[in-house]
Amino acid sequence: MPDPIRQRAAVTPSEVAWFADRCNRIVENVERVIRGKTDVIRLAVTCLAAEGHLLIEDVPGVGKTSLAKALAGSLDGGTSRRIQCTPDLLPTDITGVSIWNEQTSGFEFRRGAVFGNVVLADEINRASPKTQSALLEVMEERQVTVDGATHPVPRPFLVIATQNPVEHGGTYDLPEAQIDRFMARLTMGYPDYGPEAEMILNRAAGHSVVDLAPVVPAAEIHQMTDLVHRVYLAQPVVHYILDIVVATRTHPDVRLGVSPRGALTLAVAAQAHAAARGSWFVTPDHVKDLVLPVLAHRVLLRPEAELAGTTPERLLRAIVASARVPD
């Protein structure tokens, strides 16, 4: 079987070094305002470089909004948009609407809040299902269709959605079709004592996200995205990914396993993760690092398994532990 990756121009060590340098610049810049969350920030940068989207589930006040703003502020020429989701939010508030212009005697398209490089959909589960579905096309196709006309969103394009797991009154659970479109899901968690003290001192001194200076041109993120797909993905590593994915579909505790989109997403995320670590090829360790954040939200357990205390994360750890690692 021909290897499709080998048919593309191989990524060079200098290109990988350039990619890793840009990732480190963004991570270090964001860490100026979000302390002690290096792994979370790196995963967000991985999603940005791989043109994925990020779902953050956590309690209020742990830095979800600050992460999105800091990420956008690190891009020179990048734009940040925030959508505060509420039950009365309309789909056109997100995508945009056509308005009649009397001077031109025609309709003009007014862009919605989704037209930005980094879009924060805050408390997305408070929006109605109809409004949530307005994000489906733009997250997958990176375009908006209104009145038969297609409008592409700017690149790079990253949606960071948040939801509060402890409040369920007046909320609408995200459907599986939309959850599957997020490259990764994670939690911020409370910071450690030392980093939280630094955050307090920074805020007391008047430092905030708006003080961040851009460190990477937004146009270079597009180059990084193209480079991701040239990181070598060997056939044994592809089989390793598929062994993990297929195991979720056949496990007796699973009601719905990982979809083919999930397998593709894990592969692309692993390519971006490898390049960010300075490697021109993907290893099984790169895949292992991303199995939980990329696959856990795509696994639905049977009710009896949940009652027994099983979680998607615990199940995936067991699957990874039993999967044969390629040489």
How would you sum up this structure, described in words?
The chain has 327 residues and is α/β, with parallel strands linked by helices. Helices cover 44% and strands 16% of the residues. The chain contains 14 helices and 13 strands. The strands form five sheets. A five-stranded parallel sheet has the order 3-6-9-1-10. The two termini are 20 Å apart. The mean pLDDT is 89.
Shape: globular
Distance between the termini: 20 Å
Q: What is the number of helical segments per DSSP (H or I, 4+ residues)?
A: 14
Largest sheet: 5 strands, parallel
In the predicted model, the low-confidence regions spanning at least 5 consecutive residues are: none
How many whole angstroms does the radius of gyration measure?
Answer: 20 Å
Features:
327 residues, 44% helix, alpha/beta
Write a concise synopsis of the structure shown.
44% of the residues lie in helices and 16% in strands.
List the helices and strands and how they pair.
Blueprint (H helix, E strand, L loop, with lengths): L12 H18 L7 H12 L4 E4 L6 H10 L1 E2 L3 E5 L6 H5 E6 L4 E6 L6 E5 L6 H4 L1 H8 L1 E4 L2 E4 L5 E6 L12 H4 L4 E3 L6 H12 L11 E2 H11 L6 H16 L3 E3 L3 H17 L7 H12 L4 E2 L1 H5 L4 H11 L5
Parallel strand pairs: 1-9, 1-10, 2-11, 3-6, 6-9
Antiparallel strand pairs: 4-5, 7-8, 12-13
Helix pairs in contact: 1-2, 2-11, 10-11, 11-12, 12-14
